[in-house]
Amino acid sequence: MTTVDDCADVRTGDKGDTLILAVRARDEMSYHLLSDALTAEAVAGHYALELTGPVLRRLLPGLHALVFTLPGALGGGVTGSPVLDGHGKALSYHLLSMPLGEEAPRRIR
């Protein structure tokens, strides 16, 4: 099964309690595949977190990139979260493992 890791790189960041995921496809064909498969709903389902708002997706076709924001994903933010990775850096690996097909999503918490 093809995963995000097969055709893109992912970087994460944070703004308060919001996780920001930037997905950069390696080529134009991969960008189109990712644009079709990585909907806001699919990403929300893959992470299966209790969020404080909807996942937002922004397409950046000139850069072959997608940006997702997941509000409330960081359990209180960098200074308020009891989890080890308050910045959410390790959460980029979880998106890389997402299958680009019909496989069921995996919970991370």
TrEMBL record:
InterPro entries: AtuA-like_ferredoxin_dom. It comes from the Bacteria. Pfam families: AtuA_ferredoxin (PF23544). Residues 4-99 form the AtuA-like ferredoxin-fold domain. This is AtuA-like ferredoxin-fold domain-containing protein. The lineage of its organism: Bacteria, Bacillati, Actinomycetota, Actinomycetes, Micrococcales.
